[in-house]
Design brief:
single chain, alpha/beta, 6-stranded mixed β-sheet, 8 helices, 16 strands, disordered N terminus
Length: 365
């Protein structure tokens, strides 16, 4: 089994490892974007709202088509949009709209695409003080073909050049910024960072639940691990605060199966089911004390689903907010799924990203 990893670290030793979704996240939402919650009804923002993110940014050229073209076909788009993209860029944009103060560490070129990337970040409240601008080269960009018939998208990515290197950012400045932040988020896009972290967490476990156990065993300071599964939601393993407790030992595969049986498939909105604290055993790997959670994705009729580009990035952005707000997992996972679902209702990774005042998020605050 192999999957892409995203890394997140907080000052309280929290970690998030969701792979890039390979299956579209389906969501159900009525068009309520013209209605806003009163700012007076919202609770105070989290005290420590600074999030530092390091990873991919870019510009997306999105073209929706009636159906994906065959070889040598010439077709017309049904709609077109140009907007910022990149996993870290999307996640931090989502976090900014929810009320956090994100700072992006990445690299673009001094070209029209780079200028557009910077302007969009600044408009959304993402701090670009630590975004390196190269005088030469090209900024990253991606052509995205959105198939209206199958509700899938195809991405053709052109990396930025020259790539970001450790020397582009003074270590003293980096250390200073990380010290001030509540959370540091890495999407694994920058090779030097990705290689270093991958060596620490790579696992050859035969299944997702056993991989989660393996990660917590290999990195003993991690608080929890999450893997996203597209339309099938996500799985989270949270470490127990009392590792030495006298708990029943349960096979993690069997426990996951029992939790799946408790899901109510008739419910369209995101939900969460969880186990009690127990000792989770993964054969051939070891045991860890904790709780297992399953978060469901919101379901949407095909007629309401627009584009799943960036759904996983929106999920991560919402998790960033939830950590800062000290949401328990039972609230955090449905909240992140709801934010991702709202993003699926518009073309592009950022068009549908909700602000904190969106009425569909009212029940979480």
């Amino acid at each position: 089994m192999s999957f892409s990893l995203t890394f997140l670290f907080s000052s309280s030793s929290t970690a998030l490892f969701p792979p890039r979704p390979s299956i579209s996240v389906f969501a159900s939402a009525t068009n309520t974007s013209r209605f806003k919650m009163s700012s007076d009804s919202l609770p105070p923002l989290p005290e420590n709202r600074i999030v530092v993110g390091c990873g991919g940014v870019g510009l997306d050229f999105l073209a929706a088509v009636a159906s994906y073209p065959k070889p040598d076909d010439k077709i017309r788009s049904t709609s077109l949009k140009v907007q910022g993209g990149g996993k870290a860029g999307n996640a931090l944009t989502c976090a900014a709209r929810l009320g956090l103060n994100p700072r992006i560490i990445s690299k673009v070129a001094d070209d029209p695409q780079g200028k557009g990337i910077l302007e969009e970040f600044e408009a959304d409240g993402v701090d670009t003080s630590f975004l390196v601008v190269s005088k030469e080269g090209n900024s990253p960009f991606t052509y995205v073909i959105v198939d209206n018939q199958t509700k899938t998208r195809t991405c053709i990515h052109t990396p930025g050049y020259p790539p970001m290197l450790p020397d582009d950012f003074p270590q003293s400045t980096m250390s200073s910024e990380l010290d001030r932040a509540g959370i540091a988020y890495f999407d694994g896009r920058l090779p030097e960072t990705a290689i270093f972290i991958a060596q620490e967490v790579w696992t050859e476990a035969p299944s997702v639940p056993s991989a989660l156990v393996s990660m917590l065993l290999r990195l003993p300071n991690l608080k929890f691990v999450i893997v996203t599964l597209g339309e099938n939601g996500c799985i989270m393993l949270q470490r127990s605060k009392n590792e030495g407790a006298d708990l029943e030992e349960v096979d993690v595969e069997s426990l996951l199966e029992s939790l799946n049986q408790r899901k109510d498939e008739s419910v369209a909105f995101p939900t969460c089911v969880s186990s009690l604290e127990t000792k989770l055993r993964a054969d051939g790997i070891g045991t860890v004390s904790g709780r297992l959670f399953i978060g469901t994705a919101e379901k949407i009729p095909p007629s309401e689903l627009s584009d799943t580009t960036g759904a996983g990035d929106a999920f991560i952005g919402a998790i960033l907010y939830a950590i800062c707000a000290n949401m328990p997992p039972e609230k955090m996972l449905p909240f992140a799924a709801q934010v991702a679902a709202l993003g699926c209702r518009a073309l592009g990774a950022r068009t549908g990203l909700p602000h904190r005042s969106h009425p569909r998020l009212e029940s979480f605050f």
